[in-house]
Design goal:
Structural class of chain A: mainly alpha
Number of strands of chain B: 0
Distance between the termini of chain A: 47 Å
Number of domains of chain A: 2
Distance between the termini of chain B: 29 Å
Strand content of chain A: under 5%
Largest sheet of chain B: none
Strand content of chain B: under 5%
Oligomer: heterodimer
Radius of gyration of chain A: 22 Å
Number of helices of chain B: 9
Radius of gyration of chain B: 21 Å
Order of helices and strands of chain A: HHHHHHHH
Largest interface: A-B, 151 and 157 residues
Number of helices of chain A: 8
């Protein structure tokens, strides 16, 4: 069969895989909704969870789509579509694809012209991410069991333990925001962009919280995270022009 | 209540294992199917060299991520997130925000339900947006490749974690101080720490914060 990075058969193969992954999400959604109904959980909370998750997802999902477009120059559309819809993240997929292309004597700007190169890249990108896919079904129950054991021993500590994990993750990303600030000393101000973006987002989130509590505008709470996210991203445009 | 809890979570574990392992086989089969389709083998030497560059680090990070993220995501959320990916930039913040607003904890049955719903919805929406984008890729490419939008998307993580930090730091102020100072110092003064290594620092941040939390809890400060 003649090879092309955008061959229709590749779209069909990738489409089948993505349909299977979509099937898993739909199945789990159905399972959780059925159980929420059985438990008599507040329908308004479930409805709000769904709508705010939809709204929140739009901007990050578009950024993932940008990743598909970026990688499509070299790999065509189907492979990046698969890799960024299933497990992947742009940073990992770019590094994996670049490593494989470099070893083949190619680059991200060149379109792969033969099937052997394409298969080589596909193997590297796939094997890199399968570890989570294999281990999560095998050890999630044990990890959750450990969490339940902590809770059964000391409920208060279990709650603090949970919060500590969230804060640990958030603090790592807050640190990352500041990773290039020292460039200022060499006259490069680009490192300040993420700092101002983060501050804008934080201030908008705080304003949303105040509006919700003081003025009792409750709907803002449901959309505070997407509002702060979009505000931060919007501010990045003039900031990049100014400091970039 | 306890019996229901057990049976629902048990069911989620069973579903998660069946789906996860089936998808593992299906996804791993993709490059092999390409070999059969085109009647070619991969170029072994470049492939192995590239794998040696990529695999040790990504497998190590992948294993650490499982232990760091599974307790935060809940069982259903974990089974979904580790298939659909984009955990830190989408699935986990989405689930954390949903659980926070619903006033439920990740390790409760209600938390499990809310986390699973939010991550499933987020996964479905992401998949649909990407499908739409792939269909419309020709007209969309010049728009999405525009300089201004690139500048905005490049700052997705700072914009996301700024908002999220306000919610969680304001509720856990005493516990937040030490890990934030540690991470600020590390990221500012260690040049090797940047966008591509932030994933490794998440488990470091988590373990350090748990340690600080334990000390503060034992001393009765929190």
């Amino acid at each position: 069969m003649e090879f092309s990075v955008n061959s229709p058969i590749l779209f069909v193969m990738v489409g089948i895989l993505i349909a299977a992954v979509l099937g898993q999400s739909v199945f789990f959604l159905w399972r959780a909704l059925s159980h929420a109904k059985k438990k008599g959980m507040d329908k308004a909370i479930i409805r709000k969870t769904i709508t705010s998750s939809i709204v929140f997802t739009i901007a990050p999902a578009i950024s993932i789509l940008v990743g598909v477009i970026t990688l499509s120059k070299s790999l065509g559309v189907p492979l990046p579509w698969l890799r960024l819809s299933v497990i992947g993240s742009l940073s990992y997929e770019t590094i994996a694809a670049e490593s494989a292309l470099r070893e083949l004597g190619l680059g991200l700007e060149q379109t792969i012209a033969n099937a052997a190169d394409y298969v080589t890249v596909a193997f590297v990108m796939t094997t890199g991410i399968v570890i989570g896919l294999l281990l999560v079904p095998l050890i999630t129950k044990k990890i959750q069991g450990g969490m339940l054991k902590i809770e059964s021993k000391d409920k208060r500590w279990a709650e603090i333990f949970n919060n500590a994990m969230f804060l640990g993750m958030i603090s790592a990303f807050l640190g990352y925001v500041f990773c290039d600030v020292t460039l200022v000393f060499s006259g490069n101000t680009t490192g300040l962009i993420p700092v101002f973006v983060m501050l804008t987002s934080a201030v908008v989130m705080a304003i949303c919280g105040l509006l919700s509590q003081k003025l009792r505008i409750r709907w803002i709470t449901d959309y505070a995270l997407p509002i702060s996210l979009i505000s931060g991203m919007a501010v990045a445009i003039p900031l990049t022009n100014w400091l970039g | 209540m306890k019996k229901n809890n057990r049976s629902f979570v048990e069911q989620i574990h069973m579903d998660g294992r069946i789906w996860g392992l089936s998808l593992f086989v299906l996804i791993l089969a993709f490059p092999f199917a390409l070999c059969l389709l085109y009647g070619v083998a991969p170029k072994w030497e470049p492939m192995l060299r590239a794998m040696l560059t990529v695999l040790p680090m990504y497998w190590a990070v992948g294993i650490i991520e499982i232990f760091a993220y599974v307790p935060m995501l809940g069982a259903g959320g974990a089974y979904l997130s580790f298939v659909t990916g984009n955990i830190t930039n989408l699935k986990l913040p989405c689930a954390l925000d949903a659980m926070e607003r619903a006033g439920v904890k990740a390790n409760s049955e209600e938390g499990e339900i809310i986390s699973t719903i939010s991550i499933a919805v987020s996964s479905i929406v992401t998949t649909l947006i990407i499908i739409l984008g792939v269909i419309l890729i020709v007209p969309l490419t010049p728009i999405l490749a525009h300089e201004s939008l690139n500048a905005a998307f490049a700052q997705l993580l700072p914009a996301l974690f700024g908002g999220l930090a306000v919610v969680f730091v304001s509720k856990n102020l005493k516990l937040s101080i030490a890990p934030m100072i540690l991470m600020l110092v590390l990221f500012i003064f260690v040049p090797a720490l940047n966008a591509s290594t932030v994933g490794i620092m998440v488990p470091v941040g988590v373990l350090f914060t748990i340690l600080v939390a334990r000390i503060l809890y034992k001393k009765g400060i929190i």
